[in-house]
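Per-residue structure
===
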Amino acid sequence: MINYISLNIAMEIATTVIAMVFLRYESGAWKKMPMLLLMTCVVEITGRALRINKEPNDWVYNIYLIIEAFFISTMYRYLISSFTSNIRFIGFGGLFLVILYIFETISRGFSAYNDITETVMLVLFICYGLYYYYLLIDSEIYHKLSAYPPFWWVAGTLFFCFGSVVSNLYYTFLSSRAWPLFTSRYSIFNYLNIILYGFWSYSFICRYRQRKSIA
C-alpha cells in the first residue's frame, strides 16, 4: 500500500484532513473544498495504482478534469461575486470548456488525456485569479491580507496554474532533463503542489479563524 502513496498524494491527504477539520461548519463554495480534495486523493491513488500495474490511467484524469473545472470555477464565482455581480463570463468559460472537452474526447478518444482542455482550463483560472486580484485592489474595503482566506486560496491556485501551463508548454524539454532521482518536470510539479496545498491549507485555517471571530 505504501507504494501507492507519493509525496504529492501525502500532501493531498493532509490538506483534505485540514479542510475537513477547519471547513466543517462552512456552507456554499468553501464547503465544497473538502469534497474536491477527497476526490483528488481518490483519483491520484487510483491513477498511481494503475500506473504501477502498467495499466492505462489517462481516463481517470479525464474524468477528474471536468470535476476539477466545476469545483474551481464555482469557488472563483463565489469569490468574485463578493465584489461584482458581473460573473457571467465564468459561466461562458465553463460552457466553452465543456464543448472543448467533448470535441477533444470524440476526436482523440477517452483513453488519451485531454491536454488541450486542461491547458485552456488553467489559462481561464489564471485570468479569473488576476481579475479577482484587480477587484481586490480596486475595492475600498480594507482587508488584512496576511489573514484573508480568499487571498491565499487564489494565490495558491495562481502559482499552480501558471507553473503548470509553463511546464506543459515545455513538456518535452523538462521531461528529458533529469535531476538526481526525477525528471525536471516531476520535480517542478512537486514544488507547485507544495505551494498549492500549503496556501490552500493556510486559507482554510484563516477561514476558520475568521468565522470564529465573527461568531
